[in-house]
Amino acid sequence: MCILINYEMRNISMIEASQLDFSNISKELLEITFDGVVMVDKKGIIIYISKRYCEFLSIDLKNALGKHVSDVIENTRMHIVVNNGKAELAKLQRIKENYMVANRIPIIESGEVIGAIGTVMFKNIEDINTLHKKLNSMKRELDKYKGRLRQENSTKYSFDDIKGKSKSIEMCKVFANKAACTDSSVLLIGESGTGKELFAHAIHRSSNRCHAPFVKVTCAAIPSELLESELFGYEGGAFTGAKREGKMGKFELANGGTIFLDEIGDMPLYMQAKLLRVI
């Protein structure tokens, strides 16, 4: 499988027929300028197609001219552009197991659509194919991270889940609600089992970041030598055993949301110093 990508006409929404007097256009010029060109009339009938485009499609030029574009080009939308008069720029199209990005521009005369022109190029196919595979790999990696965030880092508790009627608890809720209205860092202090994580969840759910990620990091559970890469991520090949494509850190994953650093007191002092620059 490969990808083909087009160029030119990036900011064009239509072409006036007066600008496109086909009888005065050199076919040789079109062949040189573009790797693939096709023009159709208002009925979607092909009135011109470049030689190299025919070679790519494995069709004889004489057999292409005069036929409806949908009978010649797989998954084409040229006739649709003629019908609605709307340009389609940088649209993905699949032809013969190849993926290309196609431009389709309506041709206008006196306010009426009388045809359309499309262009593609076939250069650097292998480079583009490699880029396509890399982008797909990155998308799969991103989807995996998103799925893991939804599964593992969704908030479970709100202020209603924090039981207790004492003045201390009520006062903590008041302060926590105020904290939820800001983007400030919040320090939660208390003995083990007093509900610090409950408050962290509740603050996130009550904030304007509630639809963004909530990422919990149990600092004491991460080996000190891996803590920095876990929090801040790394570029591909940064150290022995690193993923080739690199890895996003917890702070980047929590961008726009909330990161909960649990048991931060057990973190090495040098890492606590680095965190001061962040929080």
Can you put this structure into words, describing what you see?
One of its GO terms (biological process) is regulation of DNA-templated transcription. Keywords: ATP-binding, Coiled coil, Nucleotide-binding. This protein has 279 residues and is α/β, with parallel strands linked by helices. 38% of the residues lie in helices and 21% in strands. The longest helix has 28 residues.
Short description, anyone?
This protein has helices at 27-33, 51-57, 61-64, 69-72, 78-84, 125-152, 167-180, 196-206, 224-232, 250-253, 269-278; strands spanning 2-5, 15-16, 36-41, 46-49, 88-95, 98-109, 112-120, 214-218, 233-234, 247-248, 258-262.
The main β sheet shows up as: 7 strands, mixed
Which percent range fits the helix content? 25-40%
Poorly predicted spans: 1-11
Count every beta strand, where a strand is a DSSP E run of 2 or more residues: 11
The SS-based structural class is alpha/beta
Distance between the termini: 47 Å
- Quickly count the helices: 11
In round numbers, the mean pLDDT is: 80
Q: Categorize the overall geometry.
A: elongated
Strand content: 15-25%
Q: What pattern of helices and strands is seen along the backbone?
A: EEHEEHHHHEEEHHHEHEEHEH
* Assembly annotation: single chain
Radius of gyration: 29 Å
Protein name: PAS domain-containing protein
GO molecular function: ATP binding
Organism: Clostridium perfringens
GO biological process, one term: regulation of DNA-templated transcription
